[in-house]
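Supplementary Methods, section 5.1.

A reviewer requested that the exact input to the structure prediction be made available. We therefore reproduce it here, unchanged from the version used in the analyses.
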Amino acid sequence: MRAPFILLIALAVCGPYVLLAQWIVLPSTGDQIYYCVSFPNSNTGFIAAGASIYKTEDSGKTWTETMLQYGVRTLSFPANDVGYAGGAIVYKTTDGGESWDSIYTPNQCTGSRLIRSVAFVRENQGIIVGECLVERTIDGARTWRRCENTAEMPMYPGSAISNYAGRLMHLDSWSESELSQGSLWRSTNSGETWVAVKGWLFFPESIGMQIQTITHNGEFRIWIGGNRYNRSIWGRRTTSRVFFTTDGGETWDTTKYVFPYTVNTIAFADSLRGFIGDTAGNIYSTTDGGTTWQNDNVPSGGRSINSIAIAGGTAVYAVGDGGLILKRELVTSVAEGGEGQPMGVYPNPTHGTIRIRVGAEHIGALLTVSDMFGRTILTITVNDQDTDVDLRSYPQGTYVITMHHSRTIESRMMIMMGDR
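The structure derived from this sequence is encoded token-by-token as follows.
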């Protein structure tokens, strides 16, 4: 059964790398808990709301509802028309969310039998995660098998799972104990095999931490958020709930900003712009890759922010308790670079070939070119102050040029306009 409802949108304008647009509340049909939001592209999005999945095809202006027999809490769309939803069972759509078919009921060993996370790296290849459950399919969910090595995971594998560039994944395992230390696991082959991230085990702040969310803003930059079961570690009081690594998990650090409530969701639009949502209805944003964060003071009415999603690099959506839907535009102007700046990109916009100019002190730095979904498409080592890069084989759109040097990061946005 489908029931349309209308959402009214207000637009705002942003300046270069400054997120000036305001969050707006979008009307909803009721007071359900909205568990997860996902946007396969800038126009089409979905919300998992228990026994309902909502769909928009016009960037959130209107939505339709599809009723399900069983509730769902998590979504994954490896393609515009192919998506998966998980809860008590697994649902699949092959027609862009017009219909959903129940395809699999996992036989979990204990607990609530709830699928906590679904992550599909390709249309036919993905992972489902729940209590005592880590299973993988490579044939579009026709058959499933337990992932290798997961029997070695202590406690409960699976409240959060990440997916980066279709191959690199991270998974947590945890226990509801004040003195327990959960573990973090990495796969470099799309979930086929897993190994423990040893750096997390030797990180004192991880003791008593239940992970709620894992995400990336680069291949080696991983972010973790969640809840603390204990507030004191080896006699030292701590309130840390957000952690990050810049070396793929060998070492970890805490943010300088203290997040006072349980962190439910973290999402990055690119290597610089990111968002964090918590159980108290707060959304925090960064424009410098997570070095600093600010409270956006969103009009949530204190309702929990459960999920944040980026829509094609043009907007960010957040959903939460009580039918809460928020939206914020991500329109930015382009930084041209110039005298006195660590990095310049010319011409910008471009029809295919750009010159990246850096100061002499930055020779030897690593340059990455990423699309607006955060996927790294090109990596270059700077051997001179001027580096020419041919991007004519890549599609039109907006890209982020990032320079990594020592412990500093400098980024510029670049627009590809295609052939003349």
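DSSP finds one helix and 36 strands in the chain. These observations are discussed further in the main text.
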